[in-house]
Amino acid sequence: MIMINNNSARRNQILKIGVTFLRIFLISTIAICVSLLLSLFYRLFTHTKVFGSFAQSAGFLAALLLLILLETVIFWVGIILVYTTSVQLGIKWRIIGIVCGFIPFVQIWSLCRIIAITSREAAFEDEKYLLDQVRAQSQICRTKYPILLVHGVFFRDFRFFNYWGRIPYALKQNGAILYYGSQQSAASVASCGQELAARIRAIVQETGCEKVNIIAHSKGGLDSRYAISACGVSPFVASLTTINTPHRGCIFADYLLEKIPQKVQKSVARKYNAALRKFGDTDPDFLSAVQDLTASACSLRNETLSNQPSVYYQSVGSRMNRASSGRFPLNMAYPLVQHFDGANDGLVSVESARWGESFTELMTPEGRGISHGDMIDLNRENVPGFDVREFYVNLVADLRDRGL
Question: In the chain, which end has fewer C-beta atoms inside a 10 angstrom radius, N or C?
């Protein structure tokens, strides 16, 4: 029998309780304030003493203090539950809530926004949980060959940070067997490709799985292609799906490297390499990683790295609708990439991401669009019009339907 992990469902239940408490606080506070104002106006217009006798005023104040105490408890229980369980609030709305909490009237606006964001999140996660329960037995992501997730540049899979967000959990819930590339975060395509080749051979040898299905994001797609075509592991790879990979490079990267002085480049590289060693890289090479992402470097590499007939190649690309759609530094890079390369995800153009037998372009007709980071759930954000977890579940389910 397939058992579904209830941690996520339990967290969502706590979130819903917190939202309920905040709603009760908001409604009751408004009702109390309106009642007090109406009572005050009534007494003023009817020339009735505002507080009456001492006994009446003492009783009124005691009741008011009790109400304030009760409202305070309801608010803090709600806000603590919401702040400790919500994913979608992020740092931004947590800080806004704290700051606005000291500003009269504005605090009501911020509370309404927090309630709206968290209630949508709770409803969305409820639907996800029910969907996973319904299809748990079918194990739609149980592919013939396991999935190898390959990360992009300047990140590691799990050291200090989960590169793939909520995606691995969603895939495992639906039967996927996952492995990770674990290559260095910043090195040349050739160096990372050799690491991936060794990783693939180790997985096949240790598990007897014969082959793997690679799903690679960003530069990880270039590393994977090198491993398959130049390192002799094509017999051990059933498919390669690249996600927002700059197969034809980034023209804006060529431009930046031409404009930034060599001295500055080397200085940045030294600092970055020192930091990357702390993240687990044994021999980081910032400049080689960046240079291998240029359009000129990719063009030369494409001439020598041919697709292997035994491997199924497909690709995915997404686009943002405006610069403000992405978080830093994607919001800064978007107009630059737009100028040189056209429609893009904040780093990689749609055309550069196109590779293989089939290509899927992801976009939203309105709103923010889908950024480079959104494609790996980097910020754990529920993007309107795009469910990243469901996208990967369907992607792997399709590999299974293909007999892979």
Answer: N
